[in-house]
Amino acid sequence: MKFLISFAVVLVLILAYFRLFPSAPINPVLPVPQGQEEVNGHNADVPKGANEDEEAGEEGEGHPSTSIAPATPGQTYGAAISPDGALPMTALPTALGTRDSAQVKLTGKASAVCQAKGCWMTLPTADGKEMRVRFKDYAFFVPKDLSGHDVVVSGWAYRSTVPKAELQHYAKDAGKSDQEVAAITQDEQQLTFLADGVRVVN
C-alpha cells in the first residue's frame, strides 16, 4: 500500500513539474503565444527549420534529388495539402497582425524560383514586395519552371532580418547579373515563409 501511495505522489510531482516547466521548442521563429487564437485552422508549434547553410542553398548529404518534374496542376511537393481554406496573400497582414509569426495556408502566384535547384521561391505580398518561401528541413524542392503558376503553401509566415550576404546569394540563385548582386548593400527586413507543403493550382 505504501508503495502505491509513494508511486502516486511521485507521478503527481512529475506531472506538476512538466505542467509548470514545459520544455521549450527549438524553433527558427517565435511560436504563437499560448492561448493565442489559431490562424486559419492551425495552432501547432513552429516546425524546426533548415540551418543557415541549407537556407543559403548549399549542397549536402541527404538532400532531395534536383531532378524534379515540370510543374503541373494538382502536383504537391512536401506534405500533401489541399487548397481548401487557403487565404489570399492580401490577407496575410491581417492573419499575422502584430505577431512575429503565424501558421497559415496561403495562395498566390509564384514570382521567382531558385534556378540552381528549386530550393526556394517567392510570392508577391500586398505591398508589392516579395515573400521568400523556403522548405521545412530542406526536405523537398520545387520545379524551376514554377514561376507564373498559382500555388498553395502551408506552413509558418514570420518576420525576419535577412543578411546582405544571404540576399546576394538569393540574387545569384535567381540568375541576377553581377551588377544587380553588387547593388545589394545592406540587410533587409522581410516576410519569410517556412513551408511544409506546396501545391500547384494552375
Automatic annotation (TrEMBL):
Quote the biased-composition stretches of kind Polar residues, using this chain's numbering.
64-75
Ranges for region Disordered: 35-75
- What is the name of this protein? DUF4920 domain-containing protein
